[in-house]
Amino acid sequence: MIALKIADVGDFMKKLLLSDVFDHFLLLEGSVTTFNTFQIDGFLQKSYFNAEEQEQIGECTLSYWAEVRPFFFSLIKGKRTPLSFRFSLQLAPANVEKLLQQSSVGIPAG
After folding, report:
1. For labeling, which of 34, 35, 49, 76 is most exposed (least CB within 10 Å)?
2. Which of 95, 42, 47 is closest to 69 using CA atoms?
3. How far apart are CA 49 and CA 3, in angstroms?
4. pLDDT 10s per residue in the chain (110 long)?
């Protein structure tokens, strides 16, 4: 896991909530505290989807950030800033392979 200190919080928040920069990441979990604490785990409830949608989802078990970003944005936007928020994102499996290839890190045989 990598934890990062954000230098320009305003710019980062615009990219996180208003652009597609992080849309290909998977949401592990997120929470926003305003007048209540709203917590979401990113795990898909496959029984919610019809057969065709389940087929499209395939083996994926987590929501993409793109799917939940509007919900989190609706909680955060407004005149009053949240008391706190936290998001745990994971690089999607297809992008992990690309990252390892670009960084010249060997992919373990398995």
Report:
1. 35
2. 42
3. 34
4. 777 788 998 899 999 999 999 999 999 999 999 999 999 999 999 999 999 999 998 888 999 999 999 999 999 998 898 999 999 999 988 888 887 888 766 556 55
Encoded amino acid at 72, one letter? F
**C-alpha span between 75 and 78 (Å, rounded):** 8
Tell me which residue has tokens 């934890």: 3
**Which spans in 4-83 are helix H?**
9-18, 51-57, 65-76
Distance CA 27, CA 61 (A): 10
Q: How many CA atoms lie within 13 A of 36 on its CB side?
A: 4
pTM score: 0.80
